[in-house]
Amino acid sequence: MRKHPTLAAGLAAALAACLAAPPAEAQIRNAPAPRALEFAAYIFAASNVCGYRIGTEQFEALLAKQNTRAEDVSPRGPFGNRVQTMFALMSNQMAQNRERACLAVAGEYGPEGNVAKNVLLPAAAAPPQGSETPAAPPASPPPAEAPKPAQ
Fold it and tell me: Has residue 136 got a pLDDT over 50?
């Protein structure tokens, strides 16, 4: 068997160049912990069922404590499908007893939350100054009462 010294040297040089190169933009990430996925789904479900707004900075800070990014758990993120499955289940469960579920989640993550404050904000609250959130459309006037048939 004949050896090719130039081929071996070329492969060694290519391997060395690959190892010395800076990492690519898209890095491989570990999957978020199941608790992080559940937390994201819970917050999304509470927002959906109860009409709360999500305090983005607080939400992202809690995800960061779990070594997770908001992009990872968003619907288009790499783990979005898992979060959406949990979200659907949690939303259905919360909707069955909406009033109690909304009070419970507000007590945990609302403005006075005992787990974390301002992750969920009331929908009626005015957006902070400088925010680019569009104003709500004006409410339509109530429909005129239909005449009642004479008995």
Answer: no
Angle at 35 between CA 34 and CA 41, to 5 degrees: 90
Q: What is the DSSP string of 79-130?
A: THHHHHHHHHHHHHHHHHTHHHHHHHHHHHHSTT-SSSSSSEE-TTSPPPTT
- Rounded to whole angstroms, the Cα distance separating 55 from 120 reads 6
For residues 66 and 116, the answer to whether their CB atoms sit within 8 Å is no
- pTM above threshold 0.70: no
pLDDT in tens, 17-46: 545 545 545 555 688 899 999 999 999 999
Structure tokens at 74: 């968003």
